[in-house]
Design goal:
The complex is a heterodimer of chains A (111) and B (115). With 111 residues, chain A is an all-beta fold. Chain A contains no helices and eleven strands. In chain A, 0% of the residues lie in helices and 55% in strands. In chain A, strand 7 and strand 8 form a beta hairpin. Chain A is globular and about 45 Å long. By secondary structure, chain B is mostly beta strands. Helix content of chain B is 0%, strand content 49%. The chains are: A mainly beta (111), B mainly beta (115). The interface between A and B is medium-sized, with 23 and 27 residues.
């Protein structure tokens, strides 16, 4: 079945440093979504990428979808303490409503 | 306000008992999902439903059952056959993903502890 892996599992950075998490799927995806889960909270939608090679930006966050639509990345520039949480990617295969989540990357920002 | 409501938030049960977790949404969404979250393992799909009276198994459906008799409700029963039921359970819903963003809206979760 479809598997989605994320690396790294954990990342500790100093405030102001950059952060990147990578997502890889075993199958080609129809689209990919990114979610953020704060400690003790539930996942909250950040963005969706649909097109091959697509790049989207949200303030300090940059999201990319690979050319083959099997990988994606999230890059945060100049991290802040408010960026703390676990970041998940979620991939959907075409023709289904089934979203498979990556294993997540837990980000800790040291002030 | 529109949203997804899960109950109870915390639940303690003895081993061998069935428990049912409630999930209700008033977003008029067609699709609903149940995920299980364990530390370090991300979210794993248990069951999902695209439409009323229809549902499909996810990757870890063994030991769980669901029903979708109403559009707004998708309860999950954790049966005694589930070998390790202690976990954080998240319910989500979305509009049909093909036509729109299909983003998942999550409830606040139910934490089940089996003693």
């Amino acid at each position: 079945g479809q598997q989605v892996m994320q690396i790294p599992q954990y990342q500790h950075v100093q405030e102001g440093e950059d952060f990147t998490t990578y997502c890889n799927s075993s199958t080609t995806l129809s689209n990919i979504q990114w979610y953020k889960q704060r400690p003790g909270g539930h996942p909250v939608f950040l963005i969706q990428l649909v097109k091959s090679g697509e790049v989207k930006k949200q303030k300090r966050l940059t999201f990319q979808f690979g050319e083959a639509k099997k990988n994606s990345s999230l890059h945060i520039t100049a991290t802040q303490t408010t960026d703390v949480g676990t970041y998940f990617c979620a991939g959907r295969e075409g023709g289904t409503y089934k979203y498979i989540f990556g294993t997540g990357t837990r980000l800790k920002v040291l002030a | 306000d529109g949203g997804i409501t899960q109950s109870p938030k915390y639940l303690f049960r003895k081993e061998g008992q069935n428990v049912t977790l409630s999930c209700e949404q008033n977003l008029n969404h067609d699709a609903m999902y149940w995920y299980r979250q364990d530390p370090g393992q991300g979210l794993r799909l248990i069951y999902y439903s695209q439409i009323v009276n229809d549902f499909q198994k996810g990757d870890i459906a063994e030991g769980y059952s669901v029903s979708r008799e109403k559009k707004e409700s998708f309860p999950l029963t954790v049966t005694s056959a589930q070998k390790n039921p202690t976990a954080f359970y998240l319910c989500a819903s979305s509009i049909k993903p093909v036509a729109n963003t299909g983003e998942l809206f999550f409830g606040e979760g139910s934490r089940l502890t089996v003693l």
